[in-house]
Design goal:
Elements (H helix, E strand, L loop, with lengths): L3 H11 L6 H13 L13 H12 L4 H9 L2 H4 L4 H24 L6 H15 L3 H16 L6 H21 L3 H15 L1 H35 L5 E6 L2 H11 L10 E7 L2 H14 L1 E2 L5 E2 L12 E6 L5 E8 H9 L1 H9 L5 H6 L2 H11 L3 H11 L4 E5 L5 E5 L4 H8 L1 H5 L1 E6 L2 E3 L11 E5 L9 H4 L3 H33 L4 H7 L1 H7 L5 H10 L4 H12 L4 H14 L8 E3 L7 E3 L11 E5 L5 E5 L13 E2 L1 E3 L7 E10 L4 H11 L3 E9 L4 E10 L2 H12 L4 E6 L4
Parallel strand pairs: 2-6, 13-15
Antiparallel strand pairs: 1-2, 3-5, 4-5, 5-6, 7-8, 9-10, 9-11, 12-17, 14-15, 14-16, 18-20, 18-21, 19-20
Helix pairs in contact: 1-3, 2-4, 3-4, 3-8, 4-6, 4-8, 6-8, 7-9, 8-9, 8-10, 9-10, 10-11, 14-15, 17-18, 19-22, 22-25, 22-26, 24-26, 28-29
The protein binds manganese (II) ion.
The site of manganese (II) ion has 4 residues, from loops.
Length: about 725
Amino acid sequence: MIRINDILDQIHTYMPDADTSLVEKAYVYSAKVHAGQMRLSGEPYLSHPLAVAYILAQQKLDLSSITAGLLHDAVEDTLSTIEEIEEMFGPDVARIVDGVTKISQIRFQSKIEKQAENIRKMILAMSKDIRVLLVKLADRLHNMRTLQYQKERKRVKIARETLDIYAPLASRLGIDWIKRELEDLAFRYLYPEEYEELKQEVEARLGERKAYVEEVKEIISKKMAEYGLSCRVLGRPKHLYSIFRKMRRRNVSLDEIYDLIAFRIILKTVTECYEALGIVHSLWKPVPGRFKDYISLPKANMYQSLHTTVIGPYGERMEIQIRTEEMDKVATEGIAAHWLYKEGKVLKKDQQRQFEWLKRLMEWQKELEDPREFLESVRMDLFPDEVYVLTPNGEIKEFPMGATPIDFAYSIHTEVGHHCAGAKVNGKMVPLKYQLQNGDVVEIITSKHHKPSRDWLKIARTSRARARIRQWIKTEEREKSLALGKDLCNREFKKHRLDFAEFLKEDAEEVAKSLSFKTVDDMLIAAGYGKISPSQIVGKYVKLKHVEDVEELLEQDSAGASKQKKPQSEGIQIQGHDDIMIHLAKCCTPVPGDEVIGYITRGRGVTIHREDCPNVSSLEPDRKIEVTWTTDDDVNYPVMLNVVTADEKGMLAAVSNAISAAEANILEAKVYTTPDHSAHFTFLAEVRDSGHLKKVISGIKKVNGVMRVDRQASV
Ligand code: MN
């Protein structure tokens, strides 16, 4: 078991003057909160955070990462909170712990292999700070090292996840040794028989080849020395999983895999590397097509090296890698090592905080010439524009940043979208305009009666959702207009004592065509929209079918029209149009005498607004029409009045009396008091016209204690 002193000693090997008090404090804290918890191995739980912190110290990481390593399970598995950690260990450590906790809370339940790429992208997106990922990888590595204590089913699940998600992530960060160890551990638990068999065979062969490896190393060292190059030569067996993968991919046996050992020549400068390559190629014949220059074209994870395969001293293939010490460090320890190497032993404070890894990765990409590699990396790096969330079943879905539960609902099914009534994120209800965050588990609540609204267009981000909402609204409007158009026409026909039902059956199509509509529905919808009037339809019908009755009908028409008091029109005349459905706008409650304007709505006739209504400016100009009041003494109109008075007893009664005294009806009254000792009343009252309204207002103003009276512009 790792002890805290092992960690502190390790830190002092690369940061001799480091103040490790924060790390020690984290150790004490972690011991306290994990007290009494046990690992499945029977060891105290604390052994796990200690091991994780040690792995991080082995990678020569900064103190915040190591501190976070000690605390990484505290929020997830104990009563401690992220706020407490921030208070005790600062925002830097807290951010890392929070990031690791969030990744741990993602539940991958199904189809990991299919979704692996998305999961990796999501984890990368969640690890805004590269150190979050480094701690997570150390955590996974120790869990894999102690996997034998898990139950069989869990072992397989964790190993699968490691192979599909975490080993590739380690590879992307260029941490070769973690990638190799994770792969071999996963291999061991996923394919136990193949693993054991291959392990024994490879070990046997390597035993046989010990002398061979030494011989090759000797030849290389000597030859380099002849040319005045000092170097280190390593002969390293390839890790088991890479051999296994190669056998599977090529469908060959171990006997046919020649390069079980990769030789590596490590030199001082880049020039020496190319010199050494020439020497190797003069020594042994290179295999065509196997040379790769990752020095001039580094991999996306910063890996640099020359690779070549040659026919060795006994006619066998040998893979040789040639690189500098710095490149070797980056290749084995990853990008973080590159930072340490470049910036000296300790990262500066602001660099620690920023680690603008992704940004720089993008810059490196520009220098790459292989477009496939470029695309591969760009795909991963464009994620600031994307957000990854999960269904309750653990399926990952990708959305543009800023997407909402509406987008999520429509991505499941159009009907789920149409009936989306609410959403739960991570088990809690959220408003529909909530912006989805990486790793959220989203559940949509549907209700049969729920329908899309125009407002949804403002919060939906995906084109799919927006298209579906627009489609729905269009259909809905058509349906409403159709019903309204039918109703209006039916009345018009009745007025002329004509049978509307029969018209629909017999002649409607012909009338529609002659009015230039494709279908009868289109004509009725146009009537509902107010684009044509029902009397135009009747007129056309009469002309086409009942020529001999025209006069009689037209007589009836004018007689009927004069008899009717136009209850529909609410005292409004619209130039050139009869019988259009009219509503007084609720926002500004116009009364006769007000300057007004009409607005042709989609499917609900014409709405009358006051010209000074604040909503008028946002209306589509070409749907506005001129309207005038017709005098009609019997009708009263509602208006909303705001009255501010001193906060004294009896004000409500006094104001109400004033309104009644002006012969206006009160429909509704509300009162609010405010801390500034005034009382605010709103009255919904009925008046005949603007003159009457003026009288009412001046009546209220005369009441003692009234400070202000306004006609409300918008409710
Ligand atoms: Mn852990």
